[in-house]
Amino acid sequence: MTTTTATALTVHLEVDDPDAARITYAAAFGVGAELSFRPAQTPTSGFRGFIISLVVSQPGTVDSLVGTALEAGFTTLKPAEKTFWGYGAVVRAPDGTIWKVTTSNKKNTGPVTRDIDQVVLLLGVDKVQASKQFYIEHGLTVAKSFGSKYVEFATPDSPVGLALYGRRAAAEDVGVAPEGSGSHRIVIGSDAGPFTDPDGFPWEPTSD
């Protein structure tokens, strides 16, 4: 067991054209430091097993980010709407990555901004408890846990948070079928790596 914690989580997306993806994501969300892009054409089909969530302060910010995402070539999986938990939308990037833009607030409380409060990588896993234990054994600390449904890890010094959700529940949440095969087309960079988790998500050491 390692005692190192994941303090610098980075998401590396494998895409056909890294330069084009970089431009697309900058136009859509203004994200940069949280993401890295690598050239890859590995086969993949269906749900890739992960979602990236942008947590913001109010509905107007959701609408603004979703609007520019659609202008940048994203497609809608779930239109923006009020839910039991707040307000949010789900869109899919041209490279196939699924993004959820959400807020816990149902009403605007101030001027609309494009500020992103938190970026969270949500991994859809077959067995939440088994994956939770695997990550604990690799040095991560649990911040929140709701039985076999949801786990959130403590990443206080990271630009990206990490959570686990059941694969079927995650797919249902974003409006896609849970089936998928081939590459996840994602690599997670962290000082907790290198390893591959029980669901096939590869981790590698963070570059200095």
Would you write up a description of this structure?
It comes from Nocardia jinanensis. Residues 187-208 are annotated as: Disordered. This is Glyoxalase. The strands form three sheets. This protein has an eight-stranded mixed β-sheet with strand order 5-6-7-4-8-11-10-9. A five-stranded mixed β-sheet has the order 2-1-13-15-14. It is α/β, with parallel strands linked by helices and 208 residues long. The protein has a single domain (10-201), classed as Roll (2,3-Dihydroxybiphenyl 1,2-Dioxygenase, domain 1), CATH 3.10.180. The mean pLDDT is 92. 20% of the residues lie in helices and 36% in strands. It contains four helices and 15 strands.
Characterize the main sheet.
8 strands, mixed
User: According to CATH, what is the class?
Assistant: Alpha Beta
Strand line-up across the major sheet: 5-6-7-4-8-11-10-9
CATH architecture: Roll
Point out poorly predicted stretches. Answer: none
CATH topology: 2,3-Dihydroxybiphenyl 1,2-Dioxygenase, domain 1
Q: Count up the helices.
A: 4
Number of strands: 15
- The gross shape turns out to be globular
**CATH homologous superfamily grouping:** 2,3-Dihydroxybiphenyl 1,2-Dioxygenase, domain 1
The overall average pLDDT, rounded, is: 92
In which range does the helix fraction lie?
Answer: 10-25%
Q: SS-based structural class?
A: alpha/beta
Total individual domains? 1
Mind telling me the C-alpha Rg? 16 Å
Order of helices and strands: EHEEEHEEEEHEEEHEEEE
Query: What fraction strand?
Result: 35-45%
* Measured distance between first and last alpha carbons: 23 Å
Protein name: Glyoxalase
InterPro entries: Glyas_Bleomycin-R_OHBP_Dase (IPR029068)
Region (Disordered): 187-208
